[in-house]
Amino acid sequence: MNQIREEVCTRAPRQSGEGHRAVRVVADSAELALAGAAVLAATIHAAAPSDEIVVGLAGGSTPRAMYEVLASPASDGAGVPSAPPLPWPRIRILFGDERCVGPDHLDSNYRMAREALLDPLGVPPDRVHRMKGELGPADGVRDYDHVLAGLCRRDLDGLPVIDLLYLGMGDDGHTASLFPGTPAVRETVRLVTAGYNARLDSHRITMTPRLINGARLVVFLVAGASKADVLRRVLEEPGPADDLPSRVVRPTHGSVLWLVDRAAASRLAPSTIGG
Ligand code: 6PG
């Protein structure tokens, strides 16, 4: 964990050009949860005590274990016992994407995060900005545009600053709700847009590549052998993001850290790992 803490604390986002990419392999999903939690702890420790930290949460199933680590009472989120709790009142929570369902629906990414992290920690509701899936794609996108407009910190490109954005990756290479062959993958102006998962006939609200790539640090959490081939293709084969939307994540000034377990990393070339 110290290595990750060291990386996050010492690697300042580059001022120009493509950001840095690193790939860290951990033993299993339990280690992935600890490593992912350690990044948040490191990000907070690296920030000035008065800074507000904007964190984007990932949906799907992989992040749940990490949220539970972060919510564990006696750790700084890195599974380190008796560390001081994270300063949640300084943290503003966004979501990378949401299904077009209500906040109590079983499919809601917000519901998963609320159960695993937000409620157990008593994170004040005014620090949490969920995507309102119940409004449907068009109104839900408009609503989140309004939420983002209310965030005060902007970067040099006028984008809302996201200090740390967690993302997952599907076995078809999608991330957030940027699905292969959909217009959302090619969105270059908007910050939020409608996503659509044809396989599940599921309408979504999603951060766009433009907003994602404005993040200072993007952390992918990828676990399981089912992701091994697509992970190899995303990390090792150049090609259109349309086919494998996770390819579109190349932070403009920030960095991307791929935290992957051994099973997902099983097809990666040794030269891909590290960085
Ligand atoms: C969603 C997520 C999605 C997820 C990937 C991986 O709403 O489903 O945002 O992008 O991160 O599908 O999901 P798993 O972690 O369940 O494999």
What's the mean pLDDT score?
Answer: 91
The stretches of 5 or more residues where confidence is low (pLDDT under 50) are: 9-17
What small molecules accompany the polymer chains?
6-phosphogluconic acid
> What share of residues is helical?
25-40%
Number of strands: 9
N-to-C span: 16 Å
Largest sheet: 6 strands, parallel
Structural class: alpha/beta
Which term fits the overall shape? globular
In DSSP terms, counting alpha (H) and pi (I) runs of 4 or more, how many helices? 7
Radius of gyration computed on alpha carbons: 17 Å
Q: Strand order within the widest sheet?
A: 1-9-8-5-2-3
How does the SSE layout of this entry go?
Layout: H1 2-10, E1 20-26, H2 29-46, E2 53-57, H3 63-71, E3 91-95, E4 97-99, H4 109-121, H5 137-149, E5 164-167, E6 192-197, E7 202-207, H6 209-212, E8 217-222, H7 228-236, E9 255-261
Parallel strand pairs: 1-9, 2-3, 2-5, 5-8, 8-9
Antiparallel strand pairs: 4-7, 6-7
The chain binds 6-phosphogluconic acid.
